[in-house]
């Protein structure tokens, strides 16, 4: 289920659900969407969707994700003081 080529530092649930399949409206808050993949309730579905898709580079430590791996790399360096190799 989890792609082996997506070798990040920790396990992130990688899902095969489509954008429309991944979310159901939250019962507790009308503004929120519940992710079927990780059960998190989020406001920004699009942003959260991309945090599960391996073709984008998602930060494993915060909700940030970037289309370019080097942008993520500098994010990790600046925000989390980590140097990662991909
Ligand atoms: Zn999720
Ligand atoms: Zn981050």
From TrEMBL:
InterPro entries per UniProt: Znf_C2H2_type
SMART domains per UniProt: ZnF_BED
C2H2-type domain boundaries: 59-80
Gene3D superfamilies xref list: Classic Zinc Finger (3.30.160.60)
Record's protein name: C2H2-type domain-containing protein
Classification of source organism: Eukaryota, Metazoa, Ecdysozoa, Arthropoda, Hexapoda
